[in-house]
């Protein structure tokens, strides 16, 4: 039986019709239903000094509740107004690129209501909780110190590796710690220190550069035990002293482990988009770290945490390295790289 081939009709979407740039930094468009969302972009906790010792003393429920308040990844929050201080910085700082807010505000609008992306559902910070749940350990039952270790291991494994593959590798390690080492907590510093490197290599073989990563994990576990009392360090200088940990992993680990928003996480998507939109000088910013330093000079601190997640999701779905879907992008009329003019 032969099937009929249906003609695909292309319908151009003009998302910029009837857009309004509001005084509070939000975008109003007829293509998005209005939602009343109160409050500032982030919890005030994220702007206060963090006492690592106090956080170490929190129970599981207290710890995860605090991290949820500080590092809120619910896309709906990105439709909230910015604070007056942030708006003033964006308008009065001459270092802010002229096209930054016209583009970023529209990307932020899309991410808040239109785009559910892989980073929203399967990012590294979620992997320890997801994997532990498969072994009957709820988030309330996870010890925060174990979560922080598992997060760091996930981040090391995630280099040039998809989150789905990292999840599988973490599941393999967790299974080994339960079945062979009989650790009721699964992956802990003690159990991980007992996994032979050759065994660890086999457990994470599905990830890229697995031999190197196994070496990094082994040496990191040793350094955590020797130099940091068995827990994740609380400063970026200490974080990047760990084998296999650079600024991107370090800043993300600090954010999700302690609620420390001390730097912007710049991955390949953020680096690529900042260069594409000329928010940084492409000649001066050849690396992600150079981009981070450049952007931090002018980006208001209130936006530091969300900057990564907003742009990563956008880069995954709309503006990829090979295919840019400008015809469905809300920023297609203000973007210097758009194919829709």
Automatic annotation (TrEMBL):
Entries under Gene3D superfamilies matching the protein: Helix-hairpin-Helix base-excision DNA repair enzymes (C-terminal) (1.10.1670.10), Hypothetical protein, domain 2 (1.10.340.30)
Keyword set, alphabetical order: DNA damage, DNA repair, Glycosidase, Hydrolase, Lyase, Mitochondrion, Nucleus
GO biological process, one term: nucleotide-excision repair
Positions of the HhH-GPD domain: 157-317
Gene name in the database record: NTG1
Its EC number(s): 3.2.2.-, 4.2.99.18
Protein name according to UniProt: Endonuclease III homolog
One MF term in the entry's GO annotations: DNA binding
Active site: 256
Family named by the database record: Belongs to the Nth/MutY family.
Catalysis: reaction(s): 2'-deoxyribonucleotide-(2'-deoxyribose 5'-phosphate)-2'-deoxyribonucleotide-DNA = a 3'-end 2'-deoxyribonucleotide-(2,3-dehydro-2,3-deoxyribose 5'-phosphate)-DNA + a 5'-end 5'-phospho-2'-deoxyribonucleoside-DNA + H(+)
GO annotations of cellular component type: mitochondrion; nucleus
Principal location listed in the UniProt entry: nucleus
């Amino acid at each position: 039986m032969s099937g009929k081939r249906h003609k695909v009709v292309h319908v151009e979407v003009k998302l910029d019709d009837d857009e309004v740039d509001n005084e509070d930094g939000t975008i109003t468009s007829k293509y998005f239903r209005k939602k009343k969302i109160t409050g500032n972009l982030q919890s005030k906790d994220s702007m206060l000094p963090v006492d690592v010792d106090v956080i170490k003393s929190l129970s599981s429920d207290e710890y995860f509740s605090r991290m949820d308040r500080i590092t809120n990844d619910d896309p709906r929050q990105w439709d909230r107004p910015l604070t007056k201080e942030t708006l003033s910085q964006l308008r009065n700082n001459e270092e802010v690129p002229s096209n930054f807010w016209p583009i970023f505000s529209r990307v932020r609008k899309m991410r808040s209501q239109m785009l559910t992306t892989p980073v929203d559902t399967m990012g590294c910070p979620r992997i320890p909780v997801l994997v532990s749940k498969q072994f009957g350990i709820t988030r309330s039952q996870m010890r925060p110190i174990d979560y922080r270790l598992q997060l760091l291991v996930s981040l090391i494994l995630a280099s040039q590796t998809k989150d789905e593959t990292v999840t599988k590798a973490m599941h393999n390690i967790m299974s080994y710690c339960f079945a062979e080492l009989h650790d009721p907590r699964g992956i802990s510093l003690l159990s991980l220190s007992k996994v032979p490197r050759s065994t660890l290599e086999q457990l994470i073989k599905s990830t890229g550069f697995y031999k190197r990563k196994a070496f990094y994990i082994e040496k990191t576990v040793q350094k955590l035990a020797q130099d940091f009392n068995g827990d994740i360090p609380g400063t970026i200088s200490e974080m990047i002293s760990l084998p296999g940990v650079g600024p991107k992993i370090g800043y993300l680990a600090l954010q999700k482990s302690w609620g420390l928003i001390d730097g912007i996480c710049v991955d390949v998507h953020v680096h690529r988009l900042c260069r594409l939109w000329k928010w940084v000088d492409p000649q001066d910013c050849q690396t992600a770290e150079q981009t981070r330093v450049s952007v931090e000079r002018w980006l208001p601190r209130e936006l530091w945490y969300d900057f990564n997640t907003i742009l990563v999701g956008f880069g995954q779905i709309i503006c990829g390295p090979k295919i840019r879907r400008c015809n469905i992008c809300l920023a297609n009329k203000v973007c210097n790289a758009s194919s829709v003019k």
